[in-house]
Specification:
Belongs to the MlaE permease family. This is ABC transporter permease. Pfam families: MlaE (PF02405). The chain starts with a helix and ends with a helix. It has helices at residues 2-32, 39-78, 85-123, 126-132, 137-175, 180-190, 193-219, 225-258. It has 259 residues and is mostly helical. It has 2 domains: 1-34; 36-258, no CATH class. It has 8 helices and no strands.
Length: 259
């Protein structure tokens, strides 16, 4: 009985948290279109999330292109299909691998940062002090961060994809003696509008999920320093699971409309 009761309480708390997050999301959209607009804080958060994550995203994308090409090349050589390497790598990275990997990296970098920052402000009662002083803490802290994450993740994914293709081109130039011009000519011939549009659209939802979960966990963290660590950790875990769910939904919808 204790075994089933523990699982039942876990399910209950999970669905309660889902409901609270739905209410949190509704409040975000209500506050998003109401005045005043915290434009300066929004630009600050864009800089913090975009510029500060650029090196990590670039290194991740570059290594992704190197490893993916090195792992795929021997298999294609067995079937005599090495000439298809640029097409296969570009479609795979742009459609699926690039957005998901970069989003997971940003979930660890951005989501944990938001959760820890807002959790610390909650513990030290800075959010309560903002309410007393007449400032809307939800609009200043939450709306700006979610909107910044939604806007910056697509840009980071595009940069990560481009750097990944550069890494792949370096391997092809070294191993297969393929010039960079020929490689990217084949890349742009293989990519179509139907590859770019769905992959770009879903990155906006990825960014929204990262910002939403990080802000929700941090803004509602429990008292004490342990609550800050739990908020940061749970933000990354929950966001990672949510990203896979969103990716499945995006691929399913894309398959319906384009196939």
């Amino acid at each position: 009985m204790k075994f089933f009761s523990s699982y039942q309480s876990g399910f209950n708390s999970f669905f309660v948290e889902i409901g609270e997050m739905g209410n949190f999301t509704g409040r975000y959209f209500r506050e998003l279109f109401s005045r005043p607009f915290e434009f300066r804080e929004f630009l600050k958060q864009c800089y913090q999330m975009g510029n500060k994550s650029l090196l990590l995203v670039s290194v991740t994308g570059f290594i992704l292109g190197l490893v993916f090409t090195l792992q795929s090349r021997p298999t294609l050589m067995e079937f005599g299909a090495v000439s298809w390497m640029p097409s296969m790598i570009s479609i795979s990275i742009v459609r699926e691998i690039g957005p998901v990997i970069i989003a997971l990296i940003c979930a660890g970098r951005i989501g944990s940062s938001i959760g820890a920052e807002l959790g610390s402000m909650k513990v030290t009662e800075q959010i309560d002090a903002m309410e007393v002083s007449g400032t809307n803490p939800f609009k200043f802290l939450v709306v700006t961060r979610i909107l910044a994450a939604t806007c910056m993740l697509p840009i980071l994914v595009i940069i990560g994809d481009f750097v990944a293709l550069i890494g792949s081109a370096i391997i092809e130039n070294t191993k297969g003696d393929v010039s960079f011009l020929l490689y990217f000519n084949q890349v742009f011939e293989a990519l179509e509008f139907t590859d770019l549009l769905p992959a770009t659209i879903k990155t906006f939802f990825f960014g929204f999920a990262i910002g939403l979960v990080g802000c929700f966990k941090g803004y509602n963290s429990k008292k004490g320093t342990a609550g800050v660590g739990k908020a940061s950790n749970s933000a990354v875990v929950f966001t990672s699971m949510l990203l896979f769910v969103l990716d499945f939904i995006a691929v399913f919808i894309t398959d319906i409309f384009y196939n």
